[in-house]
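LAB NOTEBOOK - FOLDING QUEUE
OPERATOR: T.R.
BATCH SIZE: 2
PURPOSE: Compare the predicted structure-token outputs for two unrelated chains run back to back under identical settings.
PRIORITY: normal
REVIEWER: second-year student, initials M.K.

ITEM 1
FIELD SEQUENCE / FIELD STRUCTURE:
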Amino acid sequence: MSRSFDGSSKSPPPGAALSESADERRRAHHRPMDGVLDLAMEPGDARKAGLLLAATELYVAREGHDVSERRIFAELFRQLLPDTPASQRLVIARLLAAAPAAPLECLSLLAADPDNGIAAAALAGEGALSEPDLIARAASGDAAVHRAIAARSQMPEPVAHVLLRHADLSTLKVLLARPDCPPGDRVLELLSEREEMLRALAADLARRHALPAPLLFALFLDLDRTGRMEAIAAAEARALAELARRGDPKLLNVAFKPAVLEALVGAALSGGVAVFAARLAHALALPAETAARIVDDPGGEALVLALRALGTGDSESGRVLVRVLGQTAPLEHLRGLIALHDRVTPRAAMLVMEGLCAGPAAALAQLAATRKEAPRAVLGRARAAGLASPYGGLSHAERHDGEGGRTVSPPSSPAVSPSRRDAG
């Protein structure tokens, strides 16, 4: 009973207390069979809204439903779900997600619910959901839906590809950590369509040795120190391979006009960081944004490679590093950068700069072109050496035996498979 402003008392309308307590129970923590108990206390016009919750509670309270019972419940579910309020649909989704044998039709309707919280609750269980249901929700759901899908025990490849196109960073980290979703070529191609996500995941992918050398170069500024050292090692290996292939030591060095280097060093020592970044972009044909990131990068490894690629002397490079990073980097770190400048070759540094200039999309395109041309190159070398196939151009894998007409496939050996570092 409440008291009004004029001092008179007013009683609550009949059934208000009962309805309020039922709603409070649903908002707090739903207990088994609450929906069945509340249904008898609801006014007549509200009973239909609570009927599906009561029916769901009765359904999940017993196991071992036969086909007829499942079909009847699914039809009742389809008819009553549109009139069921969102708060009860959420409870129903949690009940059916935890049920060991919930009807697929019911889970499918809940997974397609316009309320993302209800859909996420339905997807959080291990109930059988069709691949089209998962794909549709992965394409239209929010972060909670994406996380629920990424945490499911089964991850069909098409569903993973949709998540790669739409999910946020935290969900992508969970997805790529799954053993059934390794970061292969197709995954990298899809991530390259969302370059900001690929850059955010670069350090994690490098730690898992999932980035081929061209992508290590293109994403150098997004790597941690360990990944950057791996990228430099890959660049040195590639520079040595070029030297061995062409036999010209001049390939390891790049000559810039002295006037260009003098102006660049002068801009750095004069304190004009913006002018220095602009001259660096012009000298190395880098995008202005990339040059600014190199100058502002607190690690300094990219700046060391830029100076080494330009061919600045040890003393000039040391002065530039001290001028640009001296106010923020400790002395030991500067000494390490100067030592790195002494170790890295100009050609390896230029390979990294070329990758930064091209970007991840161009690096992946280069890898795709290399994979496409590799079989042709092998066949050309074989023909030149007189090793053409005796089967009229058919490979051993395409040759049929003379008895059963089976396709004979050669045994695969992991020992001869090229590593991702050698790709491209």
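ITEM 2
FIELD SEQUENCE / FIELD STRUCTURE:
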Amino acid sequence: MSFLLESIEKEVKRSAYETMIDCLKSYQVQGKKAIEEFQHGICAFYRANDKYVPRWQGESREACELVYGDLRQTEAYIDAAADDFLHEISREID
């Protein structure tokens, strides 16, 4: 009888772990999609910046260069955080 109870208990735990793993995998996929969307937005900004800003002068150019610099810093921070995030999810799944 105890063997049967242990077997049922193991199956319940296994099922719970599989459910958690499925949730983590879904979360990981959603995180990757969000990061890809962010990267696409960054690329669009850089393309527009390269195309139009070189012609700008004065305050508008200075303001855009400040935004560009802030965006570069934010991008580096988000890239590092995203790598950590995805690594931790993979670690939890394993």
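REVIEWER COMMENT (ITEM 2): The chain has a mean pLDDT of 91.
FOLLOW-UP: none requested
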